[in-house]
Design a protein that fits this description.
Elements (H helix, E strand, L loop, with lengths): L1 H8 L2 H9 L15 H7 L3 H9 L14 H8 L2 H9 L14 H7 L3 H9 L14 H8 L2 H9 L14 H8 L2 H9 L14 H8 L2 H9 L13 H7 L3 H9 L14 H7 L3 H9 L10 H12 L10
């Protein structure tokens, strides 16, 4: 493993000396299938990568995980090495176990220059991992706005979902990536596209307490009624103590007396969870009032009236 040691340390002279003895194969592997080229690429040692390629190292050999030298270079954001490997005929669309590609891992790690060189050399932006996730989905999940914009410009499908039905918009709502969510909505992402369990982006953002995402989804017309699974965003916000979101939902016309599949109203969930502020707020909401947007001033009154109870709104 002397060649591997030289590669991981970036010792190009030692690597050259060992190789020139002719006693060590340039593509020798360890027990995980790792080659010296993979180690050099993963550690950003471009001189070693160049030397190994000059000596005939195969850029497409894989570890047991299916990962290659260009996968690790893309993961690290090592643009020069990625470009060198591409010029050496590295297969940049070859997936690892699980279906990850150099493009997908570069999107995950927010390496836009690497994404650009891969796409411009023909990397498949529509490739889906085993779970259906695309490069755009992974970029949205990671909150990498510039990469999301770039992929959309190059034709990425904003509505291509994972196998469980989760879309890039859905995952951005769950993670609270407001700017990504706004960009996807601007490019006509399906606003109420639900995961296979019926959960929509609005429900997930309400559940997680992502106020800006909720506000943007409501502005764009997200459905505040019952989802296919018999729950609503208002139920989620009430259950998890997100008073600001409860208020936004009511302002947007959410029915405070809506019952879920178990016949339970949002106020009942809030009461069971001891969210007194939400209970008091929902009590003041008149379902017959034609102007539910008055809820904002009502919320302020409830907070002032109950301030002495020292209850803190969480996760909003």
């Amino acid at each position: 493993m002397r060649l591997h040691s030289a590669a991981v340390k970036g010792d190009v002279e030692k690597l050259r000396q060992i190789s020139e003895t002719g006693k060590v194969c340039v593509d020798s592997v360890d027990k995980e299938g790792t080659t010296p080229l993979i180690l050099a690429a993963a550690n950003n040692h471009i001189d070693c990568v160049t030397e190994l390629l000059d000596q005939g190292a195969d850029p497409n050999l894989k570890r047991e995980t299916g990962t290659t030298a260009i996968f690790f270079a893309s993961q690290g954001g090592y643009l020069e090495i990625v470009s060198l490997l591409i010029n050496s005929k590295a297969e940049f669309d070859s997936p690892s176990k699980g279906g990850g590609t150099p493009l997908i891992v570069a999107c995950q790690c927010n390496h836009l220059p690497v994404v650009e060189v891969l796409v411009e050399n023909g990397a498949n932006i529509h490739h889906q991992m085993d779970d259906g996730a695309t490069a755009l989905f992974i970029a949205a999940q990671s909150g990498n706005l510039d990469i999301v914009k770039y992929l959309i410009i190059y034709g990425a499908d904003v509505n291509l979902c994972r196998t469980d039905g989760a879309s890039p918009l859905w995952i951005s709502a769950q993670m609270g990536h407001f700017e990504v969510l706004s960009e996807l909505l601007y490019h006509r992402a399906t606003i109420d596209a639900a995961r296979e369990d019926g959960v929509t982006p609005l429900f997930k953002a309400s559940h997680k307490g992502h106020v800006e995402c909720v506000r943007e989804l409501l502005k764009c017309g997200a459905n505040t009624g019952l989802m296919a699974n018999g729950e609503s965003a208002l139920h989620a916000a009430a259950l998890h103590g997100h008073l600001t979101i409860v208020n936004k939902l009511v302002q947007s016309g959410a029915d405070v007396n809506l019952k879920n599949k178990e016949g339970v109203r949002p106020i009942d969930l809030a009461r069971d969870a001891d969210y007194t502020l939400i209970v008091e707020f929902l009590k003041t909401c008149n379902p017959g009032d034609e102007a539910p947007c008055h809820a904002s001033s009502t919320e302020d009154k409830v907070i002032l009236d109950l301030e002495h109870k020292d209850q803190v709104e969480t996760n909003c």
